[in-house]
Design a protein that fits this description.
Chain lengths: 301, 301
C-alpha cells in the first residue's frame, strides 16, 4: 500500500465530513477550525519525526532533530499563509537516553519556537524503542483567508520559492550548505503570509515530499494539470534531486496569470516554473512529457 | 529520570509562558486556546499510544487499540468539562502490516468518534518499527469555564467516578468485565460536562496513571494536601490495583464541602473518598498514613 491508499481506506470509512466548526478536514496542509464568533481561523497540523525513518541518532544532532520536528509543522502553517501561535509536543524516548540528549533536543526546538513567537503549550511523554516525536502546530489566519491547495485555476502561473533538491543533496553530503539545509530547514513563514496578504496567491502548499509528488497533489486538489519547464536547482543538486527530493520545505504556489511577482522576497528567489492547465486528469508535464511521480511515500513498495 | 524530571528540565528551558491566546499551557489535562473574539475556549490535548508500552499486537485487537487511542484524548477533554469536537491522528506503522489491521484500527477509532460527534480532521502517516499513534483531541468549553486541576481548595470534598483498579486487573486477566474495561475504556465525557455545568466542581482531572500519582498531581497544582479514607474498588481488583493502577479513565474531582453530589450519574457511581487539606506540602494520606506515589511513570528507574 502507498500512503495515498492508506488515506483512501480511511476516507472511505469516514462518514460525510460535514462539521459545524471544522471548515477544512483531511486533504490540505492543515485542518481549519472556525471558533464560534472568532475573528480568526485556527490552523492545526501534526507531523511525525521518527528515528530510523526521518533521522538517525548516530548522524543527526539532537538540537537539529528538535529544530526539524518543529520546522515541519511551521512549514505547514506557512503553506496556508498562517501566523504560527503555539505547539504541542508528543515525545517517545528509549529508556537509556541521556539528559544531555533531551536538553539539546529541547534547545533546538525551543530556539526555533522563540524565533517565531511560538509557545510550547503542552504534550505527552512516553517510552518507546525508537525515538518518536509528533509535533502539533497551531497558527491563525483571518477568517476564510487561508491559502489552500485546491485554489489553483487553469491558466495560473506556478511558482516555487528558493532552490530545490538541497535537502536530498545534503542527506548524501557530509558538509556544506546542502547539509545545513537538510539539518536545519527554514520554514517560509514570512513568505507564506506575504503570499496571502500581499500577492493574494490562488493556491499554496509546502514541498515536503518532493516537487513531483507535491505538485501532483496540488493538481488533484485543484482538479488541474500542470506543465512545468524549469526547476530552480540547489547548487550541486541533480535534476533528479530537485524534482523528487523531499524535505526542502520551500513553498509551491500559483498566481493568476496577470499577477506581478517579485523575483526575490527577503533574499528568497521566487521562480515561475510553469502553468496550470485544465483538468481534471491531474497530469504533470515537464517540457511536454509526463513527469513520473517519484517523491517520498513512506509505504510505497 | 522520571517523567516529572523530564518535564521539569523542559520548563526550566522555557521562557515565561505568557501568551496572548494560550491561557493554559503545560500542567493540566489540556492546553486552553482563547481565539480572538471567540465565545468558547478550545481545549487541546495529545496522547501517545505505543506498541510494547501501551499495548501488544499479539494480545490487543486493532479495533481496541483504535478505540483506546481516542478514548485517552476524549478523557482529557472530559476532565476539563469540555465538549469533544474533532481530532487529528498521527500514525506510524511498520512496513509489513495488513490492510485488515489498518481497517480494523480505523473502525475502532471512528466508531468511538461517531459516538461523541468527533470529526477526524487530519493527521500524519509514517513508517516505524513499532506501531506508534498520537491522537490530538480538541473540545470546547464556554470562555473561562474549563475545570482545572489547580482549582481544589482546602476543605473540598474529593470524589472519584466509577470503580478503580479495573484496568490493572484486566491487564492481568484474560476475560470478563475487567478485561473489557482495560480494552475499551469509556471516557466520562457526559459526566465531565455535568461536573462543570451542574455540579460546579472546583477541580477535576482524569485518572490515567493511577489514583496515588494523579491525586498527588492535583494536590501539587492546587497547593493542597489530601486525606482519603476509602477507594471504590472494581470487582475483583486488589487495593493495590485500585490505588496505583493506571488507565481507569475515571474522573477525580473536588467539590466545596457543602455541595450535594448524587450517588450515581447515569449509572456511574460518584464516591466521596476524602478531603483536601491545607498545603503547600502536597502530601497524600490514606487513613492518616502517607500514601506512596506508585502510579505509572514511563521513566521511573
Amino acid at each position: 500500500m502507498t500512503e495515498a491508499e492508506i488515506l483512501e481506506r480511511l476516507k472511505r470509512r469516514m462518514r460525510s465530513s460535514r462539521h459545524s466548526r471544522v471548515v477544512m478536514g483531511i486533504g490540505d496542509d492543515c485542518a481549519i477550525y472556525r471558533g464560534l464568533g472568532a475573528a480568526e481561523d485556527l490552523l492545526l497540523t501534526t507531523d511525525l519525526l521518527i528515528e530510523g525513518v526521518h533521522f538517525l541518532r548516530a548522524t543527526h544532532r539532537p538540537a537539529d532533530i528538535g529544530h526539524k520536528a518543529l520546522a515541519r509543522g511551521l512549514s505547514d502553517i506557512a503553506a496556508m499563509g498562517g501566523k504560527p501561535s503555539f505547539c504541542l509536543l508528543s515525545l517517545a524516548l528509549p529508556k537509556p537516553i541521556s539528559a544531555k540528549w533531551i536538553d539539546s533536543f529541547y534547545s533546538g526546538l525551543l530556539k526555533l519556537a522563540a524565533a517565531h513567537g511560538v509557545l510550547l503549550a503542552g504534550g505527552d511523554l512516553s517510552r518507546a524503542e525508537q525515538i518518536a516525536c509528533d509535533i502539533v502546530c497551531a497558527g491563525t489566519v483571518p477568517r476564510a483567508q487561508a491559502l489552500l491547495r485546491s485554489g489553483a485555476r487553469p491558466g495560473d502561473s506556478i511558482y516555487v520559492s528558493g532552490a530545490l533538491g538541497g535537502s536530498a543533496l545534503g542527506l548524501a553530503t557530509p558538509r556544506g550548505a546542502a547539509q545545513r539545509r537538510h539539518r536545519r530547514p527554514e520554514p517560509r513563514v514570512e513568505l507564506g503570509q506575504y503570499l496571502r496578504k500581499t500577492l493574494h496567491a490562488n493556491a499554496a502548499m509546502d514541498l515536503s515530499d518532493g516537487l513531483s509528488i507535491d505538485l501532483a497533489r496540488m493538481c488533484r486538489a485543484s482538479e488541474t494539470s500542470a506543465a512545468i519547464d524549469r526547476v530552480p536547482r540547489f547548487p550541486g543538486a541533480t535534476m533528479e534531486q530537485a524534482l523528487h527530493g523531499g524535505e526542502d520545505y520551500e513553498l509551491l504556489f500559483t498566481m493568476r496569470p496577470e499577477a506581478r511577482v517579485p523575483a526575490v522576497f527577503r533574499g528568497i528567489p521566487l521562480t515561475r516554473i510553469g502553468t496550470m492547465l485544465k483538468g481534471p486528469e491531474t497530469r504533470v508535464l515537464l517540457d511536454g512529457k509526463p513527469l513520473p511521480v517519484l517523491g517520498h511515500d513512506h509505504f510505497r513498495r
